[in-house]
Write a sequence for this structure.
């Protein structure tokens, strides 16, 4: 899986440098920097409209920043198209679910692993030899590991859009994992979930981050302060496109500017529950 | 009674060609949400390309293959030059560009080949009809139908069973998700235009065999619009059913209504039918019904 230039734990795997992104006259990001180290959970927080999702879209390539550089594993990926970034190893989930609603849970997850099927169009269209073996290995990988991990054994054959919201969020995480990414961008994975589901989701994120099998670096956008402070290694705080602070969770929690940015949302700040 | 069945079989066979052209329409709509109003001119272009090669002495089947290849090239060029820059712009803008493309192609065709009607000489299919039971079937219609259906199945198989086809479906369903999973949307758009050009081109060549090649084939290409709407804009099986229904309706109108409304009733009947049909089934037979939770 890993190519030359293998990263060590603690190396900077993803780096954003002075990112400027404007939509017309709205300055969504105003010179933001971010350094994500391999193996970390790096959270991005901020009030609504702070530019968190815009940042995710810049990393993933859906948006091209007007100014600034993005490096993945030391290489500048400014001009790399979104689907190529997925192949490089950047997976993501979405704030607003983007599942294939009409397909089953299993098919959604399989869709995530399609880039790892290497055979060409001809052998791919007739199921023989190499292709068949590949398919079987792929399927085992998906079924055993992702479905086990996310505890979705019971719903694997159900149609995705019929599922409760919390489970759909889980399926989307599974699909992103099937890409076998090195960095995963999680855009509000807990939004709209109930207490129990939030706890499950937090556990899954810790699992994929810590378990030897996965070891995925996470970039997490989330409003639930309790969860963010509990599971993050580092926290970046944004407000109206500007960085307020970037540091360890305890430092960030005690920063008066952060408290100010959240003024009027004190309940949210303490914890949503 | 015999007249009835003859009209019916002719309708079905012309309908098969409509289905092929309709497929091109459906694919582009499915992948990008664009109604390609240049479809008629693409059909026309295919007809002229085929007859051009045929007139040079290239066998008919090989001419069709050339048409397919030129279809791929033109499809990719059009997508890259005109439409790539419009990704993310309002759909209406893209549809207007396809209107512009239709004028462009019509002009280009008149510029290259003039406006005279051309016929395939020597005729490719025997002019003599053959008889099955009491039915007389025209050889041209029959083979055109067979060829259209075969190509239709090839395109559908590509769409359904190859990884490229599947990535086209994935993009059609949810473009953002497909991008995040490593599917190239640009590739998918180029592929859908290439297939549309190919399907329309061969459809045009087959229609040209029946009536000779002139500008009016472009209108026949547009006649496919009711077929597509009937089946539901994004349904591939709908394209078949819609195509054949329109073919049959058109021929029945020609046979039975022409006496009462002399002139163009054959041409307008499918559109009149479409208008009435949409009052009752606004999404066609198999279109995606949009239900929103309030």
């Amino acid at each position: 899986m890993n190519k030359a230039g293998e990263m060590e734990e603690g190396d900077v795997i993803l780096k954003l440098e002075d990112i400027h992104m404007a939509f017309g006259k709205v300055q969504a990001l105003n010179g933001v920097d971010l350094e994500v180290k391999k193996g970390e959970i790096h959270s991005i927080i901020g009030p609504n409209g702070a530019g968190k999702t815009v940042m995710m879209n810049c990393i993933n390539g859906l948006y091209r920043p007007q100014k600034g550089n993005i490096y993945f594993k030391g290489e500048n990926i400014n001009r790399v198209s979104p689907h190529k970034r997925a192949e490089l190893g950047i997976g993501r989930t979405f704030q607003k679910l983007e599942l294939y609603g009409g397909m089953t849970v299993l098919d959604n997850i399989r869709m995530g692993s399609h880039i790892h099927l290497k055979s060409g169009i001809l052998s791919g269209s007739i199921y023989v030899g190499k292709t068949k073996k590949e398919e079987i290995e792929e399927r085992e990988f998906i079924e055993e590991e992702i479905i086990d991990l996310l505890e979705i054994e019971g719903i694997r054959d159900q149609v995705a859009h019929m599922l409760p919201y919390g489970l759909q969020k889980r399926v989307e995480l599974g699909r992103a994992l099937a890409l076998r990414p090195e960095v995963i961008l999680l855009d509000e994975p807990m939004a709209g979930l109930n207490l129990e589901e939030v706890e499950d989701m937090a556990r899954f994120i810790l699992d994929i981050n810590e378990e030897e099998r996965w070891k995925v670096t996470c970039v997490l956008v989330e409003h639930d302060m309790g969860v963010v402070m509990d599971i993050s290694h580092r926290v970046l705080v944004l407000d109206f496109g500007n960085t307020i602070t970037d540091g360890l969770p305890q430092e960030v929690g005690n920063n008066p500017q952060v408290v100010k940015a959240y003024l009027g949302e004190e309940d949210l700040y303490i914890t949503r529950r | 009674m015999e007249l009835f069945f003859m009209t019916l079989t002719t309708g079905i066979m012309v309908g098969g060609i409509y289905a092929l052209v309709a497929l091109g329409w459906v694919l582009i709509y499915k992948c990008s949400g664009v109604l390609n109003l240049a479809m008629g001119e693409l059909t026309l272009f295919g007809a002229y390309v085929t007859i051009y090669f045929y007139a040079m002495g290239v066998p008919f089947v090989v001419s069709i293959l050339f048409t397919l290849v030129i279809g791929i090239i033109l499809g990719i060029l059009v997508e890259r030059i005109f439409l790539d820059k419009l990704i993310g712009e309002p759909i209406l803008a893209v549809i207007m560009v396809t209107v512009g493309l239709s004028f462009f192609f019509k002009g280009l065709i008149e510029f290259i080949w003039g406006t005279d009607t051309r016929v395939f000489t020597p005729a490719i299919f025997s002019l003599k009809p053959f008889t099955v039971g009491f039915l007389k079937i025209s050889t041209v219609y029959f083979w055109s139908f067979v060829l259209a259906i075969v190509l239709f199945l090839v395109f559908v198989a590509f769409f359904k069973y190859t990884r490229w086809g599947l990535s086209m479906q994935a993009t059609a369903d949810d473009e953002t998700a497909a991008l995040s999973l490593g599917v190239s949307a640009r590739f998918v758009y180029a592929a859908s235009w290439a297939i549309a050009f190919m399907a329309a081109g061969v459809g045009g060549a087959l229609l040209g065999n029946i009536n000779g090649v002139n500008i009016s084939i472009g209108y026949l290409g547009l006649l496919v619009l009711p077929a597509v709407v009937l089946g539901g804009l994004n349904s591939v099986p709908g394209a078949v059913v819609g195509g054949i229904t329109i073919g049959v309706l058109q021929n029945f109108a020609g046979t039975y209504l022409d006496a009462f409304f002399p002139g163009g009733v054959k041409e307008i009947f499918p559109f009149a039918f479409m208008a009435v049909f949409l009052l009752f089934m606004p999404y066609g037979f198999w279109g995606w019904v949009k239900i929103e939770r309030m």
User: Anything to note?
Assistant: The interface with chain A takes residues 161-164, 166-167, 170, 173-174, 176-186 of chain B (CB under 8 Å). Chain B has one domain: 2-228. Residues 2-228 of chain B form one domain.
